[in-house]
Amino acid sequence: MVIPAEFSLIGSYAFQKTGLKSVTINSASLVINDNAFYSCISLPSITIPGSVKEIGSRAFANCNILNNVNFENSTNTLTYTQTSGTATDGCFYNSPITTVHLGRNINFSNPNAFQQYLFRGNTGLKTLTIGNTVISIPDYTFQGCSGITEITSLNPDPPTIYANTFSGVSKTIPVKVPCVLAYQAAPFWKEFTNFEPFGECPPIPPLFTLNVNSDDTTYGHATSISMKSGAILTSTWSATGFPSVSTTTQFSGKALILANAKANCKFYGWSDGILDPLRIVDITENKTYIAKFVYVPDGIMEMKTVEFSVFPNPSKDKVTVELSENTTGILALFDLNGKVIKNQQINGKTNSMDISSLSAGTYILYLVKDGVASAGVKIMKE
């Protein structure tokens, strides 16, 4: 039997107790209801392609000669729908399966069910292959499959398994995996004692040093978090003023870095010119990021030795900043919520700032010198 592309459903008991010898699924999107092929006594194997969205309880149960089950490799998750949750509820219950290829992630329609059956109790199952896109195998999936003599996983990263995923399976059987050390360290996988290298383990990414720090920990701190593991890479966050820890080592990849100003202070940019206090960075080489902070008590800090004027104000495109003396520092423009919008290095008495890309409104301009801000000047953008 060939199920054509336009078919979307095989109903409950549709082919119960038939003499089907082969089933080919060409459907573009298919649901297989419970008991659909129950007791198909002449069916030796079944391939479930990635186009099958759901499969029901006992769909292929009690099929007398069903030996081989192939869930083809796919990134599409398959939903297994349960009806009763009893010991005979397994999708392949009482079918003499010996070989399974599990190439897909399985989702259970009732994730709170204590017993989640798919292959549970198939004691004749001997060899199991897990595809390289499988990232999780639910609890109880292979519970009681005591006849398994060999497991092969094609994923270098160990799929997540649970306490009862392989309960009842001997932990001394050969488990063939690409990266033995990774599986030996993974929860519940590490209960197996006979790992064998299989295929190619990807090379370990190079290590790089990531420096994330504050230019002045009196005014604020910065930290970084690995995007891969969620682990804090640098313990630079300190609300009580302890020194930042600036250096850490991680695998290449992505990290989240975050700057946080203390009371009466403002963050005004990173050392590479980026103004977002929370950002994601690629770690493909040794990198240093310094968060810059400025002290602005109550928004005002007079610098008696340096005064500046801004004109024209209001302005549509740019403003000129005139200082009373040659000055080296930074002009930092903030919105009324305290978020830095622009900053630029200055050196001299006369400098200009382009504000043409800003939305119309009111902004505050500060002159930052030696970590301290001048009195803020309101700028009106037309």
- The number of helices is 1
Name of the level-1 CATH class of the largest domain? Alpha Beta
**Class inferred from helices and paired strands:** mainly beta
Radius of gyration based on Cα positions: 32 Å
**Helical coverage, percent range:** under 10%
Query: What is the strand content?
Result: 35-45%
Unreliable residue stretches: 235-243, 299-306
How far is the N terminus from the C terminus?
A: 73 Å
CATH topology of the largest domain: Leucine-rich repeat, LRR (right-handed beta-alpha superhelix)
Output the strand order for the largest sheet: 5-7-9-11-12-13-14
Shape annotation: elongated
- The CATH architecture assignment of the largest domain turns out to be Alpha-Beta Horseshoe
Give the biggest beta sheet. Answer: 7 strands, parallel
Short description:
The protein is mainly beta and 382 residues long. 2% of the residues lie in helices and 40% in strands. The radius of gyration is 32 Å and the shape is elongated.
